[in-house]
Write a structure and sequence with these properties.
46% helix; single chain; disordered N terminus; alpha/beta; 6-stranded mixed beta sheet; 10% strand; 5-stranded mixed beta sheet; disordered C terminus
C-alpha cells in the first residue's frame, strides 16, 4: 500500500559504474589490446600437403620458421604473393608477416619429411628452415605471479562491496554488512496511509489510537506522570491487515516510520544480526519521536527454550538478546515506539512479551460481517460493477475470509467477467470467484464413468440429506458433482458465525460428515476412497471432543490442549491407559455418528434417493430443490435473532482450514 516516494533522481540505480570501476575497465582493455597487438594480420591456416603442392612446388616460398617446435610459419616471396592473391582462395593473405601457418605435429617427423622434399629439389629451389622460441605477454613469469594474486584481490573487493551495498565511505566501509536494512518512510511523504484507508479493524484501531495520541500530544500524558507503552504486538491470522495498520499508525501520528522484517536480521556472518539491531535503534533514536515496525518478528523472537538446537552461541539467540537489551535495557529509547506483527505469538520468547518491552497485544482478528462489507467497498471502488450488485450480499458469502482473501475475490470476479467479454462485473461472477477460491478450478475435462458418477452423486446427496434433517448442522446452499480442484463433488453449506459450539452441534456436524460414507454403503452397496476427507475431519472432531473439550463421560472434564506449543518437547501429558481410553472414546463417537447418519438416510430414503437422482440429472442443485423434497428445516432453539448474521459458504471438500483447534471447531 505504501511506496517509497524518494523521487530526487530519475536515474536507475546501478547503471553508472563507480569511479574505481573505470580504472579496472581501462586496465583490462589495455592489457587485452597489448596481448593481441601483434596479431593484427593473422596468417591463413593451412597444412603441409597444401604448402608443398601449391607453394613449394611453384617456388613461391621464401622461408619457413618453426615456432616453439609446434607451429610452422610460411613466408612467401613478394612477387609470388602478388600472383597468388589473384586466386580466389588466397585473396585474404596478409601482406606483412607470415602468410600461412600450420601445426607440424611431431618435430622429428616434420624435419624428416622436409629434408626428403628438399633433397629432391633443385639447388635454386631450396628453402631455408629456421627455429624460434617465443613467449606471450600472459606467459611471462611476472604476469604469472601477479595475475592470480590480483584476481583474488579483485574478487574479494567485489564480494565485500556487494555485501555492504552502500560501497564507499562512511564509518562502516566494506563492513556495512552490519548496517540495518530498515526502510524509512518520512513524515513528509505524500502518499500516507491513514485509518481512513484501513477498512474494518475497529477494535484494533481504538487500541493503537492511544499510541497515536501520545505521539501527537505527549505533554498531557507526561504532566500526569503517565508513560505510553514502549511496544505493541499486532497478533492475528495472515492477511488481516497487521502491516497496513502499523503504516496507518505512522501516517496518523505524522512521525518517521522504520519498517523492517524479522528475517532481515538473520545473516550467514556471526554477529551481523546483533549489529543490525544496534544500528536500527541508533537510527531510530536520531529520528525520535518515531515508530519502528518489525514484521514477522517470530523469525528472531522464537522462544529460546523451545528449540533443542539453540545454544548459547546461536546467531538467532544473540540477535534476540540484543533486541531485548535495546528494547528495555540500561539505555533509554525515549520517543521510540516498537510495533511488531506476527501470526505465531504463542512461540515468542517470554522475555520479549513482558511488560516494558511489548506491554500489550493487539489482536487483529478476521473481519466480521460488517467489517467484510466495509472491506468490499474499498476494493469495489476500482471495479466496474453491475448497479444491482449488493455489497451486503457478497459479505454474507465469505465468513472467515481475511482482507487479502476479499481482495482476491474481487480480482477473480473481474477476471471471470473479462473472460466472458462482459462490460461490467455481475453477481454471478462474484459467486463463481468464491467457488473457485474455496473449491478450486472447475475441471471440465475430467472423465468420470457412469458408475463413479452415480457413487459421487449418492455420496454428496447423503451429506446434503443428513445435514438438512439434523437441526444443529449447517444449512445447505448447494450440492455439486462437478469436479473442482482435488474434489470430485462438494456440498456447500451456510455456516453460522458463532463464537462457541455446543456438544449437540458438534455431534450433528459429525453425523453430517459421515453421511457420504453411509450413503455409499446403503445404496451403492460398497464403500470407496471418496470419503477420505470426511473421515479425516470426523476423526479430528472426535479426538478434539474427547481430549480438548472434555465432552466424554469416561475421560471426564480434562483438556490436554497445549496452547504454549511445548507439547512436542514435553511428550504426552497422560499415561498409556489414558491414551487407550481416548482412542476408544473417539472411535465410539465416530461409530455412533455413522450409525446415526445411516438411520437418518433410512428414515428419509425416498427423499434421499430422489435428491440423488435429481443431482445426477442436473449436476448442481440448490437449497430450493432440497426444500421441495424434504420441506423446510426445523427452527433451531439457539438460532441467531439477526438473520444477517448467518453467512457464508463452506464446502464438503474443504470444510475447515487447518488452524488451531479453537479456530477449527
Amino acid at each position: 500500500m505504501v511506496e517509497n516516494n524518494d523521487k530526487k533522481t530519475n536515474k536507475l540505480p546501478g547503471l553508472r559504474p563507480r569511479g574505481y570501476m573505470w580504472v579496472y575497465i581501462i586496465i583490462f582493455i589495455f592489457l587485452l589490446s597489448w596481448s593481441f597487438l601483434g596479431d593484427r594480420t593473422m596468417p591463413q591456416k593451412s597444412n603441409w600437403d597444401e604448402v608443398k603442392e601449391n607453394f613449394l612446388d611453384r617456388n613461391y616460398v621464401d622461408r619457413i620458421i618453426i615456432v616453439n617446435d609446434k607451429l610452422a610459419e610460411v613466408y612467401l616471396k613478394k612477387d609470388a604473393l602478388k600472383e597468388v592473391k589473384n586466386e580466389e582462395k588466397y585473396k585474404s593473405l596478409p601482406a606483412d608477416g607470415p602468410q600461412l601457418k600450420f601445426i607440424i605435429g611431431s618435430l622429428d617427423s616434420f624435419e624428416r619429411k622436409f629434408d626428403e622434399y628438399m633433397s629432391e629439389a633443385a639447388p635454386g629451389d631450396r628453402v631455408g628452415l629456421s627455429f624460434d622460441q617465443r613467449s606471450s605477454f600472459w606467459e611471462s613469469p611476472l604476469i604469472s605471479a601477479i595475475l592470480p594474486i590480483g584476481f583474488i584481490i579483485l574478487i574479494w573487493i567485489l564480494i565485500m562491496r556487494g555485501m555492504s551495498k552502500s560501497g564507499g565511505g562512511g564509518a562502516g566501509g566494506v563492513f556495512n554488512v552490519g548496517k540495518a536494512k530498515a526502510q524509512m518512510f518520512d513524515k513528509d511523504m505524500k502518499d500516507k496511509v491513514t485509518f481512513k484507508d484501513v477498512a474494518g479493524l475497529e477494535e484494533a484501531k481504538i487500541e493503537v489510537m492511544e499510541i497515536v495520541d501520545f505521539l501527537k500530544k505527549p505533554k498531557k500524558y507526561i504532566d500526569l506522570g503517565g508513560k505510553i507503552p514502549k511496544g505493541a504486538l499486532l497478533v492475528g491470522p495472515p492477511g488481516t491487515g497487521k502491516t497496513l495498520l502499523a503504516k496507518a499508525v505512522a501516517g496518523e501520528a505524522n512521525v518517521p516510520f522504520f519498517s523492517i522484517s524479522g528475517s532481515d536480521f538473520v545473516e550467514m556472518f556471526v554477529g551481523v544480526g546483533a549489529s543490525r539491531v544496534r544500528d536500527l535503534f541508533r537510527q531510530a533514536k536520531e529520528k525520535a519521536p518515531c515508530i519502528v515496525f518489525i514484521d514477522e518478528i517470530d523469525a528472531i523472537g522464537r522462544a529460546r527454550s523451545k528449540n533443542a538446537g539453540y545454544t548459547s552461541n546461536d546467531e538467532r539467540e544473540n540477535t534476540l538478546n540484543q533486541l531485548l537489551t535495546e528494547m528495555d535495557g540500561f539505555g533509554t529509547n525515549a520517543g521510540v515506539i516498537i510495533l511488531a506483527a506476527t501470526n505465531r505469538a504463542d512461540i515468542l520468547d517470554k522475555a520479549l512479551m513482558r511488560a516494558g518491552r511489548f506491554d500489550r497485544q493487539i489482536h487483529v482478528d478476521l473481519p466480521d460481517l460488517k467489517e467484510r462489507e466495509e472491506i468490499f467497498k474499498v476494493y469495489l471502488k476500482k471495479l466496474r460493477l453491475d448497479p444491482k450488485l449488493e455489497t451486503d450480499f457478497l459479505a454474507k458469502q465469505i465468513p472467515g475470509f481475511s482482507g487479502a482473501d476479499i481482495a482476491n475475490v474481487c480480482n477473480e470476479a473481474a477476471l471471470i467477467a473479462a473472460r466472458a467479454d462482459k462490460k461490467q462485473i455481475e453477481r454471478q461472477d462474484f459467486l463463481d470467484a468464491i467457488d473457485r477460491i474455496i473449491g478450486g478450478l472447475e475441471r471440465k475435462s475430467t472423465i468420470i464413468s457412469k458408475s463413479e458418477k452415480r457413487s459421487i452423486a449418492y455420496h454428496e446427496a447423503g451429506h446434503a440429506t443428513v445435514g438438512w434433517i439434523l437441526e444443529h448442522s449447517h444449512p445447505l446452499i448447494k450440492v455439486s458433482i462437478i469436479p473442482r480442484g482435488q474434489a470430485l463433488g462438494a456440498a456447500w453449506y451456510l455456516p453460522e458465525e458463532r463464537k462457541i459450539t455446543t456438544r449437540e452441534q458438534l455431534l450433528d456436524e459429525l453425523a453430517s460428515f459421515m453421511g457420504g460414507r453411509a450413503a455409499e454403503e446403503l445404496i451403492v452397496g460398497t464403500i470407496s476412497t471418496g470419503a477420505l476427507n470426511d473421515l479425516g475431519r470426523a476423526t479430528r472432531f472426535a479426538y478434539a471432543m474427547v481430549s480438548y473439550y472434555g465432552m466424554s463421560e469416561k475421560v471426564g472434564n480434562i483438556s490436554f490442549y497445549d496452547s504454549s506449543g511445548q507439547s512436542d518437547f514435553m511428550g504426552k501429558p497422560y499415561s498409556e491407559q489414558t491414551a487407550q481410553l481416548i482412542d476408544e472414546e473417539a472411535k465410539r463417537i465416530v461409530s455412533e455418528s455413522y450409525d446415526r447418519a445411516k438411520k437418518v438416510l433410512m428414515d428419509h430414503k425416498e427423499g434421499f434417493v430422489k435428491l440423488a437422482e435429481l443431482l445426477l440429472e442436473r449436476e448442481v442443485i440448490f437449497t430450493e430443490d432440497v426444500e421441495k423434497i424434504f420441506g423446510k428445516r426445523k427452527n433451531k432453539e439457539n438460532e441467531t435473532e439477526d438473520k444477517n448474521e448467518v453467512a457464508g459458504i463452506i464446502t464438503d471438500a474443504d470444510l475447515y482450514p487447518e488452524k488451531n483447534i479453537e479456530e477449527s471447531l
